[in-house]
Amino acid sequence: MKKIYLVIIIISIFSKLYSQSLIDIISDMDKNYFEKLEIINNNKALTTDSNNLWQIKRYDRWKSFWDSRIDQNGEYTTYLNTMSNIEIPKSTTENIWQSIGHKNDILPIDFKFIGRVQSIWVRPDNFNIIFIGASNGGLWKTADGGVNWQSVTPQYSFGVTKIISHPSNYDTMFIVTGNYGQGLLSHGYYGQGIFNSTDGGESWNPVVGFTPSNMIYMSDIIYDPVNYDTMYAVCTKRIFKSIDGGVNWTVLSARPTAETSTFSEIRINPVATNYIVVSGSNEFQTSSDGGTTWTSIDFFSTETNDSYIKVDYSPTGKLFALYYYNTTGYYFKNYVKYSTNNGLTWAETNFFGEENSNGHATMSACFIKAQSDDIIWFGGVTIQKTTNSFLSHDPFSSSKVHDDIRDICFPYPTNLNLVYVVTDGGVNKNIYNDKNTWENINGNPPTSPSKLFQVFDLEAKYIKPPGLTR
HSE on the CB side for 35, CA within 13 Å? Predict the structure, then answer.
């Protein structure tokens, strides 16, 4: 009888172990690289199930990335801390790389120089000054509307997920760093905290500092639109608040409701700023007292446990939410809901149920921005726009706009036609409210020494000079 109990216990342990998904395993921070591989290799079904293709894709990327970067003990921190000390050289006439590919004329789209950009901020009183945050290449600036770009954080190597300025003093700026769950690393590029500039973005200093070994991703930061001394910032598992303009920060009580849930963004009701909402992966919470207490809302009911929510308030305080959720294996559906009571209850719009097979890239890139109760921009892989509060909607992308929209910016509130987006293919601008008039501003003309593009890997090859015998 004891042997039977022992067998049952062993079977139970292994059943629990293998009930984990690939994403759960590779995101487990308590296990090193070799321990994760052992679990996965002992359950081949995890990497062969045709209904699990999007997780297999992320696993393949994760494994390919880390195979050559973990240390002899299977730990990640050696690489991460080394990366945090790499200096990115500014573009100068003495330090120019010459492009030897790709050959643009064989491509059916207009991507002369491309690279993933995660965030954007355009100075409202001078549209020629633009800052963009790379997924892991720091903060970049142009002062000529996108002709030339240069790094303004050469001493740091991090992803910049949000860029903001003081609402009435554009020389005071903040960025948050990290890049959760994007691309090659299943758990993203770890951040180094919140950084502040008081000279218009020329120099930056940490105000909430982390190291990559802390394994923290910052994802959003905002000002209270009425009281500029009050600010909020978000990382995957915590919400921060400042009441002195970003000098000091405290951690609020809110926590994700499940181990696999994460925060990604925070929004304040512009007409009642004590109401705050936070959303993310499988997560939505609302506060009516400036973040002191929080209420978790069952946003999805019984639909799914694999979802992503993006939210935005309109100027009147109407809250819109775009969410993607996994249906079966590799397919995702997306909906838009709205709320008039700060997320306590929700109503459906006419935009619902569109299905695609673009996998996790769609979820991580989704966005929504409400210019008014009627005019809302939204999307993920591509840009969509409604001008009648979702009675209808139309695509607003073109062949000049790369897929996967990471951020959208309207620098001048009274000109709703001026819009900037950043994507996995760089930076685009549109000033005519016409989807056919997008302009690429990754660095023009092509002879410019300072262009934006993404490098995935480098290899050095030694070539023996002529006449050298050894």
Answer: 12
Q: In this structure, what DSSP letter does residue 85 have?
A: T
The residue type found at 215 is M
Q: Does 112 score more than 60 pLDDT?
A: no
Using CB atoms within 10 Å of the CB of residue 190, give its burial: 0 to 12 exposed, 13 to 18 middle, 19+ buried: buried
Which amino acid does the sequence have at 379? G
Q: Which pLDDT score is estimated for 201? A: 96
- SS3 assignment, position 400: coil
| Contact in structure between 308 and 297 (CB atoms under 8 Å) | no
Cβ–Cβ < 8 Å for 238, 250: no
Tens of pLDDT, residues 327-353: 555 556 778 899 999 999 999 898 865
List Cα–Cα distances, 412 to 126, 172, 311, 467, in angstroms: 10, 18, 21, 63
* 453: nearest Cα among 97, 85, 65: 97
**Token pair 């400042």 in the structure block, residue:** 242
Confidence of residue 455 (pLDDT cuts 50, 70, 90): low
pLDDT for residue 197? 97
Give dist(CA 354, CA 361) in Å, integer: 16
pLDDT tops 80 at residue 5:
no
Classify 370 as helix, strand or coil.
Answer: strand
> Which residue, chain included where needed, has tokens 């996108």?
146
Please tell me whether the peptide bond between 167 and the residue prior to it is cis, using omega within 30 degrees of 0. no
Please report which confidence band the pLDDT of residue 3 belongs to, taking 50, 70 and 90 as the band edges.
low
In the numeric block, the tokens 């262009």 are attached to: 451
Phi, psi of 243 (to 5 degrees): -120, 15
Confidence band of 444 (pLDDT split at 50, 70, 90): low
What would the two tokens of residue 76 be? Answer: 């990640």
What single string gives the DSSP state of each residue in 292-316?
SS-EE---STTS-SSEEEEEEE-TT
Quote the tokens at residue 371: 């210019």
Domains contained in the chain, CATH given: 2-75 (no CATH), 107-440 (2.130.10.10)
Nearest partner of 223 among 262, 170, 179, judged by Cα:
170
Distance CA 138, CA 283 (A): 28
Question: Which pLDDT score is estimated for 438?
Answer: 94
420 vs 394, more confident: 420
Q: Is the pLDDT of residue 266 over 70?
A: yes
